[in-house]
Structures are given as C-alpha cells and as structure tokens.
User: What shape does this take?
Amino acid sequence: MDMNNIDVKKVTFEEAMDIQCERFTNLDTEEIIIEQDDNHQVLIDDYLIVLPESGIAIGDATFCNYDDEVNEFYADWAGTALFSIEPDGFHYVMIEQDGMITTLSNQGFDIDNIYNQNTYVLSKVESLIFSSDSDSDSDADTDFELELTRESEDDEELELDF
Assistant: This one.
C-alpha cells in the first residue's frame, strides 16, 4: 500500500466541514468508484474526514444510475459515504442521501462529541479504500499506520495508528 502520496491535515471538525464545503464546490476533484453493478455506482471524492476516536471516516458521495439510452452512468443524488476504520484501511459501509452531520446523527453518533474529537482530512486516499466488492484479505496482515507531518508552524509529527 503506497501511502507516500497521501495528504493529511489535522484540523478541528468544524475546519473539516469548511474544507468539505470548499471541495464540494470544486468541480475538478478526483472521484473513486466504491460500489458498482449494472444499474448503479457510488462515487466518492478522493478525500476523507477521519474520526479515529469514533472508528469512522466520512466523505462526499454521489449515487449514479445507469441510463440504457446513452449507455452511461449519470449522477442521481449526492450524499455522504460512511467508512469503518479497519486495520488494513477504510471499509465502505453505506451511503446516505444526507449531509455529513445528518448522516452521523442518523447513525447514532453524538454530534457534540464529534466536534470535540481529533479530526483529520486525508486527500489522495484511493489506495486506502476498500469497497463493498473488494477483497482485502490479501492485505489483512498489513497494519494501517500513517506517520505524517501536520501542516502547522510547529510541524508536529503525527502518527495515526488505527
């Protein structure tokens, strides 16, 4: 798993939401297919908001349907993808047709607690994503550990060990 290209920022949850809003309006973001069959696909932007204390990561997602007349997928609705943090990476759990705060609340997370947690924004995460269709058993013995530099004046070293 190549983790050298992953960008990481340690931020507050509120700052993560601001970054998410900025990225959502940027139409040049890379997308990753995390689920697909003949009739639909689920895409996420190539970044995640990671909440290690809750064991989850979330990201902007798009649910697409297949159009037989033009033979391609088209965006149907936007929502939030939820991932569990596992020893080998982020495992796709579900997509919900709501914003991030509503999705977390609907899944039973204490939003006040979420705002007080350590939060990380990871970009270029494709190598860490396991879709509902992927087989991650080959990497099951690989611990998911990132040693990263925080973007700040003090360049504090961060180690994320999930």
